[in-house]
Specification:
Layout: H1 3-11, E1 18-22, H2 36-45, E2 50-58, H3 59-64, H4 66-79, E3 83-88, H5 99-110, H6 112-116, E4 122-126, H7 128-142, E5 146-150, H8 153-156, H9 162-172, E6 177-180, H10 183-191, E7 199-201, H11 216-222, E8 230-235, H12 244-254, E9 261-266, H13 272-281, E10 288-292, H14 300-305, E11 308-311, H15 320-327, E12 332-335, H16 340-343, E13 349-352, H17 357-369, H18 374-381, H19 386-420
Parallel strand pairs: 1-2, 1-4, 2-3, 4-5, 5-6, 6-7, 8-9, 8-11, 9-10, 11-12, 12-13
Helix pairs in contact: 2-19, 5-7, 7-9, 12-17, 15-18
Length: 424
């Protein structure tokens, strides 16, 4: 804590708990649907405290579209008044081990008043690298308690590289608390040397008021399909790491046996053109649809229209789309990666190894032929509601601030006692 904060804190406590968040996983000017789970969580958290989300935006994206950035930034801030978009300067392609230092300097140079002339009770870094590392350094510089939240690839992927693993371990072992979105991720933290005493599991949530069961027939008709069409659905970024190509190849193995089945990809991504060409080469162009980006509020009808939802990712944390599918009563086939098995029981879907096309095709065929208890799926999803999630995170943040203050008071008391002790 700097002198200004110490003086103001001594005069009067802040009117509300004040939280500073650093996270790239949030709506940004170029991708308003980015990090929808953080949007849901932070939006609810903002009702209980005064928070600001510092969102790094790549300088390359800003340079490519400078005029659009200004307009889209205004629109993003209008939607999210708590967001503050900061241009993130870094070396592209190379220098990944320097990204945390680059983010730290980008924030420090562009938002010094926000960081050091305002009182913050806690700093939260949401994403292991570079966000949590940079946030930890900022919190240490201003002597504010730090909490980290990790999601999946930020730990499972980035810790394979020694330099980034060392930085992540350094930051997380200096956090008052580390929130992992699955037990598998928490176990991985222990493997890389993070003190398990400071970590806990907090599964993401689902909005049961937004994702609720709708009549399947009417949902299909509303989306332009016939009532007889069977829909195999993917929602997410259409990219290699999500297993989108594996899904298309698995669908090709089923196409002749299930002539009423269509595959639908909902979402943008770098593989759309490649998969469109591949579907044409397989003679399936008329049975594979690319619906493009949809707002989060528009997804429920797609889940409800689907006969089966599939997420064949190569790696994951605990993906919200699985919770959202179950909340709509839709069964799931997914790869057994990250914490997926922790939230997808046998009565809600099937698990297969990642990147195993024959196993994926077999599981899809079995799931499409099975009668699922959709009411039971919905009941299971109801155990992951956002209200409980946010209440738990709120408690952890306030506890971190309380414990830091208590430690500071104890240290001060020891110093006073030491000075007051008679000299021998």
């Amino acid at each position: 804590m700097n002198l200004r904060d110490a003086v103001s804190g001594a005069i009067a406590a802040p009117a509300a708990f004040r939280l500073l968040i650093v996270s790239n996983l949030f709506a940004d000017p170029f991708n308003p649907s980015r990090g929808t789970y953080n949007q849901e969580q932070f939006g609810r958290l903002a009702k209980a405290m005064d928070l600001t989300v510092l969102v790094p935006v790549s300088w390359l994206a800003v340079l490519r579209h400078p005029l659009a950035y200004r307009r889209l930034k205004r629109e993003a801030v209008a939607r999210w008044p708590c967001a503050d978009y900061v241009v993130y300067w870094y070396l592209p392609g190379i220098g990944r081990r320097l990204h945390a230092a680059s983010l730290f300097l980008s924030l420090l140079l562009q938002r010094f008043p926000t960081l050091f002339l305002r009182h913050w009770d806690c700093v939260l870094g949401s994403w292991g690298y570079p966000d949590a590392v940079a946030a930890c350094a900022l919190a240490a510089l201003r002597r504010t308690p730090f909490v980290a939240k990790v999601h999946g690839t930020d730990i499972n992927g980035f810790t394979r590289e020694p330099a980034r693993r060392a930085q992540i371990r350094w930051a997380l072992n200096r956090a008052r608390h580390v929130v992992a979105v699955s037990a598998a991720l928490r176990a991985r933290l222990t493997e890389i040397g993070v003190d398990p005493a400071r970590t806990s599991v907090l599964y993401n949530g689902v909005d049961m008021r937004r994702f609720l069961p709708l009549p399947q027939r009417e949902s299909k008709l509303a989306l332009g399909y016939t009532a007889e069409t069977r829909l195999l659905l993917f929602i997410g970024n259409v990219q290699r790491s999500k297993g989108c190509a594996n899904l298309l190849e698995a669908f090709a193995r089923l196409a002749s046996r299930l002539p009423a089945l269509r595959l639908v990809y909902v979402g943008p991504g770098p593989q759309v053109a490649e998969l469109t060409a591949r579907a044409g080469a397989l003679g399936l162009a008329e049975r594979v649809d690319f619906a493009g980006r949809k707002a989060h509020d528009e997804l429920a009808p797609w889940f409800c229209a689907a006969d089966l939802f599939c997420l064949p990712s190569h790696s994951e944390g605990v993906p919200n789309v699985i919770l959202e599918a179950m909340a709509c009563g839709t069964p799931v086939v997914a790869t057994d990666v990250g914490g997926v098995a922790e939230v997808l029981p046998d009565h809600a879907g099937l698990l297969v190894p990642p990147q195993d096309v024959p196993a994926l095709a077999a599981a899809l065929f079995i799931a499409l032929g099975r009668s699922w208890d959709r009411a039971r799926l919905i009941e299971h999803a109801a155990g992951f509601q956002w209200e409980a999630n946010v209440a738990r995170l709120d408690h952890l943040l306030r506890q971190a601030a309380h414990d830091t203050a208590a430690d500071a008071a104890a240290t001060a008391a020891r110093k006073v006692a030491k000075r007051a002790a008679p000299k021998r």
